[in-house]
Specification:
The chain is of the alpha+beta class. It folds into three domains: 43 residues, no CATH class; 51 residues, no CATH class; 184 residues, no CATH class. It is built from ten helices and eleven strands. The strands form five sheets. Strands 9-11-10 form a three-stranded mixed sheet. Strands 1-2 form a two-stranded antiparallel sheet. Strand 5 and strand 6 form a beta hairpin. It starts with 14 loop residues before the first strand and ends with a helix. The chain binds zinc ion (5 copies). The site of one zinc ion (ZN) has 9 residues, from strand 8.
Length: 313
């Protein structure tokens, strides 16, 4: 009888494990290379201390640092969490669980918005910064083919309460309400006698890159307002789908991890208005460029098929 490790003969006490024999001092943990006295785990024919095995093969929770021995969650950024942390607050902007180890904490703003400290660094908190970015995003929209010329799009920072007061629909579970474009229409009977674009409202404290996507979305609503002079209503999923599409096209030009994250959120959004609307709009881009697509939609109030697009433009 020879020891599996040192190949020397065994006399006296020995360890028998998975049909092999070892001297006590030769029965070593594959992880720490120290002898195993008590319980062990076998992997690929090799013994491991249980804690060493866990350290080597079981990830630790990013929040509480305990080994993730049961089913766990993983966020977009690769952080793994105990399933029980699902109830913790996540950052409205990046989706990470807000806690010390992952995000260095975060801020719950008085209006209820939760932003982690990775994101607060570039928060847009002043009106002058908001206005400057709005003008930059008008240029970005123009370079995508939608020019607002000298149309006015005053943009004001506001809080969650005011946004929800003015929202045109109520379900924001799948798509948080962070911006709004506001206009007013005056009717005499059923006839529109005047229309006015009032302003764009944007959630305050958003990190700058996220703020930019919300602004370009609302500027696209403004473009539809100004280019639809009869004020005919567009189906909600079509107009929203187009606005999300513009966000997506702008993000595609940004080569950052945050832009990639935001594009993933857009592509996977289950919402029937924002998600399905976006996917239909993106598909329609196969048939037309953006500016033609936007005009087609105002005229026909639907997305084009390959066939109908062929006869347009
Ligand atoms: Zn031995
Ligand atoms: Zn060990
Ligand atoms: Zn945990
Ligand atoms: Zn964040
Ligand atoms: Zn919208």
């Amino acid at each position: 009888m020879r020891c599996q490790r040192c190949q020397k003969p065994i006399s006296g006490n020995y360890v028998r494990a998975f049909d092999k024999v070892w001297h006590h001092d030769c029965f070593l943990c594959t992880g720490c290379q120290k002898p195993i006295a008590g319980q062990y785990i076998k992997k690929d024919g090799q013994p491991w201390h249980i804690p060493c095995f866990q350290k080597a093969f079981i990830p630790n929770c990013a929040v509480c640092n305990k080994p993730l021995t049961e089913s766990y969650l993983q966020d977009y950024w690769g952080n793994k969490y105990c399933a029980s942390h699902r109830k913790y607050a996540t950052c409205t902007s990046c989706g990470r669980i807000v806690c010390g180890p992952v995000t260095n904490g975060g801020m719950r703003f008085p209006d209820g918005l939760m932003i982690c400290h990775l994101c607060t660094e570039t928060g847009v908190t002043t009106q002058s910064k908001a206005t400057k970015i709005m003008w930059e995003m008008r240029e970005a929209l123009k370079s995508l083919g939608l020019n607002l010329y000298n149309a006015e799009t005053p943009t004001r920072l506001t809080n969650r309460d005011e946004l929800h007061t003015h929202s045109r629909h109520s379900n924001h579970d799948e798509h948080p309400l962070l911006g709004l474009a506001q206009w007013s229409t005056t009717y005499v009977g059923k006839r529109i006698v005047s229309r006015q674009f009032n302003e764009i409202l944007i959630q305050t404290n958003l990190p700058e890159d996220h703020f930019r996507t919300v602004v370009i979305h609302e500027l696209t609503h403004a473009w539809f307002f100004y280019n639809n002079p009869k004020g005919e209503k567009l189906p909600l999923h079509i107009e929203e789908g187009m606005c999300v599409l513009v966000e997506y096209l702008w993000l595609k030009k940004q080569k950052t991890d945050d832009a990639q994250y935001r594009m993933t959120i857009i592509k996977e959004c289950p919402d029937p208005i924002y998600g399905d609307g976006f996917r239909a709009a993106l598909k329609a881009m196969n048939f037309m460029r953006l500016s033609s697509l936007a005009r087609y939609i105002i005229e026909k109030k639907k997305f084009p098929s390959a066939f109908s697009a062929f006869f347009y433009e």
